[in-house]
Structures are given as structure tokens and as C-alpha cells.
Amino acid sequence: STEKNDKTDQLIETIYKHLKGKVNETSETANFITSYGDDGQSVMLHSDQRTDAILLEALLYIDPNSTLCTKLCKGLQAHKVKGAWKSTQENCFVLIALEKYFHIKEKDTPDFIANVWLDNDYCGQHQYKGSSRKCL
């Protein structure tokens, strides 16, 4: 019913406002502060990056155009060490959230040629057409 949808929308808006008050934002990145007063991560199976990943997914659902989504994405990527996060569980949560982020934010198929110049010297080009998992 419409009344139920209105109540759900109001609840989502209330939670969203609460979360925006709990975020640590810089000009480039963002992360949510979650502290239990000790390093209980191994006991509680908790991690800041896992929390950020879960909240990124939620924000992509309720406000995908928010700059907070982009900042959370950059913040998550900034916490990688040697290509991974702290645990397998953290890797899973973060990679799922990032996949959703890139699926929403980069839905246009690339189709362009990049030319590289160094001063007046032409160094080459590379054509980007379609998506690929291949690294250059």
C-alpha cells in the first residue's frame, strides 16, 4: 500500500541522515567510524572496510548519485595492501560492493582511442572498445 511505502521511505531517509552524520569524509575518500573501544575484530568478525562495503551497497540502492558513494569506493580501494584487504571475508564484502558500484557508475561501454604525447613527441595510442578484464 501507499501508506506502507511512505513509512518505508521515511525510515530509509531517517537512517540515511543518521549515517551521513557518522561518516569521516575527506576531499577524496570517506569511511564510517565504527569502534567498540577495543580491537575486537577477530571476536566479533567486524572490520571497518566490511562496514564501509555494506553501507556502500545500501547507498547505491537509495542514492546512487551521491558523492559519498564515490568517496566510499575510493576509501575502500585505499585500504588494499598488496592487492587485498585484511581477510578473505573482507575481500568478499568489498569486491561485491565494488562490483555493484562499477556496474552502476560505469555502465557505458568504452569506445575511444587514447593518444599519448610527451612534449612534442608522439608516443603511441591504444584503442579502448568494449569492456575487458585484461590488464595492459
From TrEMBL:
Domain of life: Eukaryota
Designated name of the protein: Uncharacterized protein
InterPro entries linked: Terpenoid_cyclase/PrenylTrfase (IPR008930)
